[in-house]
Fold this sequence. Notes:
The chain is mostly helical. The protein has helices at 18-36, 43-50, 54-60, 64-78, 81-94, 97-114, 116-127, 133-156, 165-186, 195-211, 220-231. The chain is elongated, with a radius of gyration of 24 Å.
Amino acid sequence: MKNQKIVLESPSVRKLTAGERRNQLLQIAKELFSESGFRSTTTKAIAAAAGVTEGIIFKHFSSKKDLYASLLDNKAKEIGIESWRDELDALARREDDKSLTCSVVKHILELDREDPQFQKLTLQAALSGEPLHEITAQRLLPLHDFLCKYIKKRQKKGAFQKCDPKLAAYFVVSVPSYFGLARILFGVDDFQFPEEQMTLSLAQLIVDGLHGQSNAPGNKKYKRLAAKQKKQ
Length: 232
């Protein structure tokens, strides 16, 4: 009896379903990618952190790039990209420049605030040297194309100043995006007013820039456009 080993049975652990396992792998991959970067994070490391073999990862994802792409798609579902697209379409039909811009700014600021790890993930991916820009661009281009078409439409009606609509679309997205980036890189978060006010302030700056001097307050054309929007 002295040499007999006593084996203690570990309590039974419920096996994860395929969906739960996939979500677990996505969460762990997001954490590791954001901390160590895409190139430095191996599928072996992800598997080890999840407590599974590397082969389990390839049952759910065809490659590490596919895993990264799935992270972006998963985030799009989390933020309700489809319902947001419907909201933007409705605002575009009404030609409500301020509300449409507010919507873009609001969603970008909320994403950065609620999930800064995701911002780090995309930043690390961009700095990794891996050709991930195509994967990211495929998911960001629809918003850029939407803004570009809307800006062109408003330029034809004389509401926005003449400029490259592609550049203007980047301008709309870049202003709130840079603020989120500054939070991560420089720790900038010392504004003494709520996020709602920040959203309105940034949106107003963007819209004023798009309207240009020809639509500045006091200009007759600006007053007519403002009056039209109020009636809508």
